[in-house]
Description:
This protein is an alpha+beta fold.
Amino acid sequence: MIKYEIITSCKDVDFNQVSEILNYYGLSEFDSKIQKKVFANSYAVVFLKNGEQIIGVGRAISDGICQAQLCNVAVRDKYTGMGLGKVIIDNLLNQVKGCTVVLYTHPKHKGLYEHWGFSKMKTAYAIYNDEEHYRKEGFID
Ligand SMILES: CC(C)(COP(=O)(O)OP(=O)(O)OC[C@H]1O[C@@H](n2cnc3c(N)ncnc32)[C@H](O)[C@@H]1OP(=O)(O)O)[C@@H](O)C(=O)NCCC(=O)NCCS
């Protein structure tokens, strides 16, 4: 079993590594400076660290009372399939306990979130800032 530390603050986090993981999966194109702002402005953050290496990340935007959205959940390629994604999700859900929690994911991960107890929404709407891209990827009709 892999050893890791769970960090729930942005203090002392190496955002070069955070950007690297998110850019690798195409979840974000931001550089480390902007990524730091994105996470610092989030209600809840999670970083999994194995020594100095960040091996998993995730964040939630929320009012902390009733509504929350999970974003940017990712585990370094080498460490997937070991339960770390679930650790990140569970930690974020715990930090926004009591809230209705929504997320959108890539179509290829739909089954995964159902496996983790999320229900598919029937009335969700979005305005994407790059609509064509998201249409092509299968996020919207
Ligand atoms: C999605 C991601 C975070 C999952 O992390 P992970 O550490 O591999 O996930 P875990 O090992 O905790 O959990 C995998 C579990 O889901 C199951 N699973 C995986 N894919 C599945 C699918 N498509 N349908 C149903 N179940 C699935 C596995 O069998 C496993 O089940 P178990 O917990 O009962 O053993 C990781 O693959 C990743 O970073 N992907 C790229 C980034 C990304 O697309 N993130 C999602 C953006 S919202």
